[in-house]
Amino acid sequence: MKKVTSLVIVLLVAFAVAAQKYEVKASESNLKWTGKKVAGSHYGQIDLKEGSFTLKNDQIESGKFVIDMNSITCDDLTGDMNKSLVGHLKSDDFFSVETHPEATLLLSESTKLNNGKAIAKGLLTIKGITHPVEFEATQKGNKFSAVINVDRTLYNVRYGSGKFFSNLGDNMISDEFTLEVELQTSTK
Questions:
Q1: Cβ proximity of 41 and 180 under 8 Å
Q2: How would you classify residue 160: left for phi > 0, otherwise alpha for psi between -120 and 50, otherwise beta?
Q3: 42-81 burial, b if ≥16 CB within 10 A, otherwise e?
Q4: Radius of gyration in angstroms for the set of CA atoms belonging to the chain, rounded to a whole number
Q5: Distance of alpha carbon 163 from its chain centroid, rounded?
Q6: 8 φ, ψ (degrees, to nearest 5)
């Protein structure tokens, strides 16, 4: 009886610490970007190509997400103004999507999930330039969400930045943009 009890305890502990892999359902997930400027803001969507991450002991152990930068849209403008802004965002002034069609986020760790929330850390690569990021992630079942603030100037996206250009007036664009992330996942 003692051996059976010990075996059950070992199996329960092994199950509790086993890593759980989550695959992101890219077509059911959403990445919304918002950029601000002195005279207002613009927002749109970017497609997630693929993503997965592993949780172990209620902590993110690792993860990789690939973003299709060529899919960037603008949802607040129409017609020629929309076409012009999207073309400008894809140009070398901003994200250089012809040369850098993908951005990646590699997750490396997180705090333990507490009431469905954890602080995640990783490396974000845009235009081939990598910098650390940190953000709060929220879990509700198989749905995960986060708001990631990104200083675009760290990734050589300097157009309209007050850090690099003077006398911009109403044409100054905030150095930070946000990504609102909503991921639908399945477990393996």
A1: no
A2: left
A3: bbbebbbbebebebeeeebbbbebbbbbebbbbeebeeee
A4: 20
A5: 24
A6: -60, -45
pLDDT value at 10 more than 60: no
Q: Which CATH number fits domain 16-187: 2.40.128.110, 2.60.40.720, 3.90.180.10, 1.10.10.10?
A: 2.40.128.110
pLDDT tens sequence across 37-54 = 888 999 999 999 999 999
Cβ of 28: how many Cβ atoms within 10 Å?
A: 13
pLDDT in tens, 93-111: 999 999 999 999 999 999 9
Contacts of 135 (CB under 8 A, 6+ apart): 119, 120, 146, 147, 148, 149
Q: In the prediction, which pLDDT does 1 show?
A: 52
